[in-house]
Design goal:
Elements lengths: L1 H24 L5 E13 L1 H33 L22 E12 L5 E12 L5 E13 L4 E8 L14 H4 L2 E12 L4 E3 L4
Antiparallel strand pairs: 1-2, 2-5, 3-4, 3-6, 6-7
Length: about 200
């Protein structure tokens, strides 16, 4: 009789433990996504570099010209001939310039839990508009510090476009009409060492 009671007690304990684990695993993250957006940043490193070099060269030429003007003034007072300023040559050709395209993903989140967050793993997911078919997913890990009740802006840069099919020159409002966006919190690491982990579907 004692043996049956012990077996029954173990079965009930196992069921309670399983129910508790299941309850913990489907617990929603204590983080609220307040705002999400992305945009494209296009730059031309070669052009930027040439522009900086051009400004520096112009400043050097201006200094040399002022120095030459002073020298010529002194030479004129002494009855000596003045020196002509150097003739500026054409700027060298720099050839083809390559564009650098970066995708900026921004999310504003609020810590709705009681514990301070130290690391947030999140996905920026793109779905076909009006359907559940996933078109693209970008995964990020943000090292941060968000106290209870506070908000934080997360800004991540990537060379990958949202869906892998967006043309940087054509991306804009019209292309955004073809899909919907969602931010999915995957993992939260707290300051006290505890972790919340999303359940894989």
């Amino acid at each position: 009789m004692k043996f049956l009671s012990l077996v029954l007690l173990l079965v009930i304990f196992a069921q309670c433990a399983t129910a508790q684990a299941l309850s913990n695993s489907i617990e929603l993250p204590k983080v609220t996504v307040i705002q999400k957006k992305w945009h494209i940043e296009v730059s031309n490193p070669a052009l930027d570099k040439d522009l900086f070099r051009s400004i520096k060269e112009r400043e050097q030429e201006e200094r040399k010209r002022r120095d030459l003007d002073k020298q010529n003034e002194i030479r004129a007072q002494q009855g000596m001939p003045t020196v002509a300023p150097p003739v500026r040559g054409p700027a060298p050709e720099t050839g083809d310039r390559g564009l650098s395209v970066t995708y900026i993903y921004e999310v504003k989140v609020r810590n709705t839990g009681e514990k301070e967050i130290r690391t947030l793993s999140w996905d920026y997911v793109f779905y076909e508009h009006g359907m559940e078919r996933e078109l693209g997913r970008r995964r990020f890990v943000s090292k941060l510090s968000i106290s209870s009740g506070k908000t934080k802006n997360l800004v991540m840069r990537s060379a990958s476009s949202p869906t892998g099919t967006i043309d940087a020159t054509k991306a804009g409002k019209k292309s955004r009409d073809h899909y919907s966006e969602q931010v999915v919190i995957q993992r939260i690491e707290y300051a006290d060492g505890s972790v919340w982990q999303a359940v894989s579907p």
